[in-house]
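Q: What changes when iron/sulfur cluster is included in the input?
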Amino acid sequence: MNEISFERLVFGVDDEARAAPHLVQAMVELTYGCNLRCVHCYNPTHDAQDELRTEAVLRILDELAHEGCLRVGFTGGELFVRRDTFDILRHAKRLGMILTILTNATMITSKIADRLAALDPHQVDVSVYGASAETYETVTRVPGSFLRFLSGLDRLVERHVRVLLKLVLLTVNVHERRQMQELAMSRNLRYQMATDVHPRVDGSIEPLAYRLSPAQAFEVWRESAEPIPSASLTARGESLAAFDGRCIPAGGVAPPSNTPGILGRRALPAGRLARLGATPDVHHGLLTSGGSQMRGASRAKAEEPSCGFDGRVFHCRCGKSNVAVTPHGRLNLCLSVYHPRYDLTRGSLKDGWKQLVDLVASARPGPAYECNRCSLTEHCSRGVGDSWLATGQFDNPCMPHYRELAERKASFLRER
Ligand code: SF4
Ligand code: SF4
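A: The predicted holo structure follows.
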């Protein structure tokens, strides 16, 4: 029997789904309840009201598995505000699904950490909002949350749970990005920097006040491609290349393990790789010239072009391989596109999935749409969700924030 790696398996089925849609991956929001009050949060509420009961969630998981779903990401809100979270996680595991768990870590007690270690999920994504109490709590608006975050994180690290840190960069914490990287490095953790901030799904644009300007987002992008040497690198005896390999730029793909000695995949924009004549070495996270075992998959995942790239409204995986489920049982295109709200408490997942597939396959851009004839698509991170959240349309004309960022990236790459 031939063996294939986990990455090859997931990338393979995901890429196939672009041509012939089939369900591969679901994001399941277990609750909107959260113990934090982040300034940039896109959830419509922080209260858990009339959300799906345990049996209803388990039934949806059964249906997802039946449709072939391979991988499930569980998120909130903060999913540990639910009392039945482990019943749900264990059920998904019994169904043979690959689990990713997204948490702010502030509710991870020793008991929860023990149970997570026993569950052995593929990955736990932990959001980081700052490297000092003052900055972190400016984002979360909850006094004492920074210390609880650090304690929760360290409980996971002590138990060797596979953690990926998501460094959430906003106007109010971007000045601490180096210290946030240090926080990851000092624990030998992989990390990813995220600069995308979306309007709330109820249409409020309040979170955008905390979004980095195109100039700031460009600096972060540029720095993530060229990490600056750090004093702690030398102290830890780690090479720059090794450190570089553990930094996964936004839009990149998490490596399978943070086991010491196994470094992360290096994901870089496809355009830049082409200019360098290089491909990411998927085993060691280092740039190598010439061939790579997974060149196609790596390039495709490195930085996906915006929707509109190939003339269609949806270039992304929504309605081709991915779905999202809300805490009230609505099936949507993704977490940030609260549409079409197919009601899984009344209809089957099979029918809901078909509705999504038909919606995406039949979507045609209107005359005002510009992304399908834009030379910057390779560098632009605008997705259908950004357009939809801003105006309720998938095919808006060019969005200036994304254009300016794309222009800065393109100009930087031209001058190298
Ligand atoms: S931790 Fe996440 S869900 Fe909770 S308030 Fe912050 S951004 Fe929102
Ligand atoms: S720069 Fe504007 S038109 Fe071009 S891909 Fe981005 S949002 Fe679309």
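Observations recorded in class: Residues 249-303 have pLDDT under 50 and may be disordered.
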